[in-house]
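Exam review. A common question shows you a sequence with its structure tokens and asks you to describe the fold in words. Practice with the pair below. Do the first one on your own.
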Amino acid sequence: MSDQGPTEQELRAAYEAELKRLRVEDVLVQTVVSLLNLGGRKAGLAPGTEDERDPEQLRMAIEGARALMPLVEPVLGSEAGQIRDILSQLQLAYASARGATPAEPAPPSSQERPQPQTESGPGPAEKSGRLWIPGQ
């Protein structure tokens, strides 16, 4: 008897069975967790990952997780607070990393930042409180 493993048809059937069982919210939760884990590495927070620091990758991980949070919070239930805490830690790490980079000038403070002539204050996304602006 040869041990060739599953046939292509068996693999396809197993994949189809997994897709039937899988729910979109499960994938969304797993994506948020993956983004937070990867963000932690890109922040250099995990032991042994200090050489992996990448503020731009960290920013993308934060923004991706923040975008998905409204969809996954109902699924997470009581665990949503823990996920928000981890996200907050990553945001602080990002702010710290951006502030510690001497090669880049710091963004102007809100008093120094010129306001667009056509608007009289923050736009609808910023007013909603759901927009994360680095450094603010």
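Now try the second one, then compare your answer with the model answer below.
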Amino acid sequence: MAFQSQIRSVDDLVGPAGRLEALLNTGVDDPPFSALVTHPHPPSGGTMHTKAVYHAMKAFSSFGIPVLRFNFRGTGRSEGVHDEGKGEVDDTRAALGWLSGTFAKPILFAGFSFGANVGLRACCGDPRVAGLIGLGVPVRAAGRDYTYNFLPSCTQPKLFLLGDHDEFAPRHVMEGIFASAAEPKELRWVANADHFFQGVPADRTSKLDRMNEEMRDWLATHFAVETPQ
């Protein structure tokens, strides 16, 4: 019988601002990794249920890896208030601690948009984190500027995956950020996709499945993960 993930609520994830609402998609009995996925900008409607976050979870789960998603402080039923990214870095570190304590396995990270920036800041240099995926990595969105001056010292394997029509990450700017990042690294563009991995006017079909496929290809190549039977 093929592996099928189950989903359960996590009641003991606590960050500096209080309890964080979280869900765990279970994995195989002895997974090689655990995984964490973080969500986009909360005041703009981002939650752990955002479509790109869900599809990122599915990419990890397809390999039998247990995946933790949570709502940042002040989002959903998570305690605290939004902290413009500063406190959310600490929330991410709390989630890393929960995964490490629960599974004692190397952690793979993926974050989307605001969650990519926050999560990369939290995970870069953390010895518990084996690999990093930034989805829709933002540069400037709704008047908010995002910086990546930590990437030159971030030596974990990294995938940057964006739509080639991402309105919050002009290609030439993102390529400059990518050039500054330490190896190993890879930058991939999803054709005809916007920031949310939706289609552009010339091609309205969703590109979320393509995002998922690119994630799975990178994970299989760099971490030798396989689909459980």
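Model answer, second protein: The mean pLDDT is 97. Helices lie at 51-61, 86-103, 114-123, 171-180, 208-223. Full marks require stating both points clearly.
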